[in-house]
Design a protein that fits this description.
The complex is a heterotrimer of chains A (313), B (245) and C (290). Chain A is mostly helical and 313 residues long. Helices cover 74% and strands 1% of the residues of chain A. In chain C, helix 1 packs parallel to helix 5. Classes of the chains: A mainly alpha (313), B alpha/beta (245), C mainly alpha (290). Chains A and C meet through helix 5, helix 12 and helix 14 of A and helix 4, helix 9 and helix 12 of C.
Amino acid sequence: MKTRHVLLLSLLAALLLLPLVEAEARIYILQIFIFLFLNIVLAQSYDIVDGAMGYLNLGHICFFALGAYSFGILYNAGLAFPLALGLAVAVVVGFAGAISYPFFRLRGAYFALATFGLVKLMEHITINLGWLTGGSNGLKIDPADRSMPVYYISLAVVVAVILLSWRVSRSRLGLAMNAIREDEEVARDFGVPASRVKAQALMISAVFPGMIGAVYTWNVNFIDPNQVYGLKIALTPIAMALLGGSGLLVGPVIGAVFLYLAEELLWTHLAHLQGAIMGLVIVLVGLFMPGGLARLKGVAGLLGWVGWLEEER
Amino acid sequence: MVPILSAQNVSKHFRGLEALSGVDFQVAEGSITSVIGPNGAGKTTLFNVIAGNQAPNGGQIRFRERVISGLAPNSICRLGIARTYQNVRPFLGLSVWNNVKVALLFGRREPLPSAREDAEIESVLEFAQLTAHPARKAETLTPLERKRLEIARALATDPEVMLLDEIVAGLSPAEALQMMETIRVLNGRGITILLIEHVMKAVMGLSSHIIVLHHGVKIAEGAPKDIARDQEVIRAYLGDAGEEG
Amino acid sequence: MDTTILVQLVINGILLGGVYALAAIGLSLIFGVSGVLNLAHGEFLMLSGFLVFVLHDTFQWDPFLLVALVAPLFFLVGYAFEKALIRPLAARKEHVRLASAVLVTLGAALIAEDFAAFFSQDVQFEKSVDLFLPTLVIGELYLPSLKLVVFFLVMLLILALFLFLKFTFLGLAVQAVTQNRQGAMLNGINTTRINAIAFGIGTMLAAAAGGFEVIHSYVAPNIGLPLTMKYLCVIVMGGLGSFVGVALGGIIIGLGESIVGFFHPAWGQTVAYLLLVGVLLIRPKGLLGT
């Protein structure tokens, strides 16, 4: 067995055993990990469209929020958890397919701009459809502590999103996406059906945020528009992907872990200006690390030794 | 015999600027046909219209009997028409291997059985003399290697027609001779070649038929010796084009 | 429906849209020249509003005079912002550059918002300048004269920008870079410097809009990013690169918010984003874009 397989499996085993450890603050610790997993899923799935295909989807959070709301509504309508989850994901993927055609007529900054506007549009629609969504008062489901199952499901989604990203990166579809990133016109000239490829990529990237959105509602029992469409939650996963190293399979994971931990530390140790310090970190990354943490010399060396760095999208 | 590629009365204008007006031509199957003319004559526009990058404002392009103008570029490529670009456009961030693989996977009419893909990519790379470092990213290639990659990518789609846009221009005399030989070999494999070229030696040496464009209008066509004899054409429309890359 | 109400709503909408147009033109200028989506644009508006408020509060100077003093100051802020944070990204590949610029301007926006909140103690603490001007009554129509004055000044600024772009050498250079960066460079235009100047002018317009906001409405630390998004909607509607289109986009969104907001208050704020997506579906290049 290769070093990296040993490392990966022991990491997975440790994460699987974690909830079984008896500790006073067990639920608190589980919740920290659940939110870490959430961030990893969002950052990793975001990078399917950005890192692999070169489209900056600033509206990625819509998939998460739509998943969260669809699940909440269906669950409240009396559907069992797995059914509500499955249907919520179906709604999100359908939505991704539907917006794909009009939005992907735009490129570069225009696409980024339009998807950014989509976040606000969806938020306002959610607020205004009060009869369905509870409007700005939010949506409740029957409250319960579901930390244990949520932890395991979230972990499973993390594993799934990484595995699928890896599969896609070595597939025919992945290659078509890469060609589109490099030069969409040339890709078309050489037979790549770009519109279809882009739609497929967007739908794949929507599955996991949809799923984790549903799980999120199940976990916190209450959602409101500001929580799931807020600009901070919308943009943080993107900052994570870029910070870690967009275009590398392991990049978004590294970025998510790093930024999430930094945030937690700031919140617990600083009374003021956490936001400003986060902002500063993001500015510095943008200025000095176009390749992200995973491409830094030291980190790249370490990753190369483990054998992960060559895995590009 | 039906020409493999033909244009009927093709026009293309950009905001009033007439890039092509009423162009007719026929490309015989198996031939090497050249399109010549000074800068701004509409040569590259013609290629773009054939390849589906730009829709003509009037007229039709036919591939054998089939009208292809209006089809998307990816469909046209799959029908068997592959192109290269005047300013080479490799997928810079992809490996040489994957550059060819994209064309191989998506550009062919009949998909290759996956067991034969690798062998086919290798043979294409070998033909283009790019076997040395298939894993290298295309951005590390020299200009000559990039031109070869353009050929390799087009060849990987198993085309019936290749549109070569100034593939010889900018090469050293030795390299140019080599490239001309490559074109002859491609033609020998049964691929019809449509060539845009400024290098007259290449045009005269390779072509069986020449089309002369000027200001978007076809002003002459014929065998090289006829065009060469038409001294007016040469002097008026090609005299200033020699140094252009 | 009562015609008077409609006319009144149209007037309100146009007055509202004027300020949108001003700030959005600033953002559009920056985008056109540099290709950068400046997510910190609304923050400059917010900061300038606060500055006008604080100066007015401390010295009781005329708020319009303060706008005239503060806005040019923000030219320097915008210029320095470009130099420090945007210029270093210039050499990167287009897609990487776009992503880096999103990060940098987003981070800057977070910093600005957090500092403003820190000094004003609360993210939602609304500040506004108390300035009373009598309302004009013409027949049955009410014209808030404060908003009229603001609208007049906005139009004056837009006209000034238009003249600057049309008739000064610098302005023509800015347009040349917007239309064709490479070509402008080949023609000896210092595109690096034009970038910084465009950021300066764009930021100055945002700052003027911020001053006007605090006079006829209010500012709060958390208005920056949402406003930036609204301006982006305006720009997309109008078509990137078309200043007339952007001005029109601002007015249309102002009109939409005013009219829809009258009948369905909740949907009023949705108009901008609905129009954004609607326009994209029908005409991706915007109303007047080419």
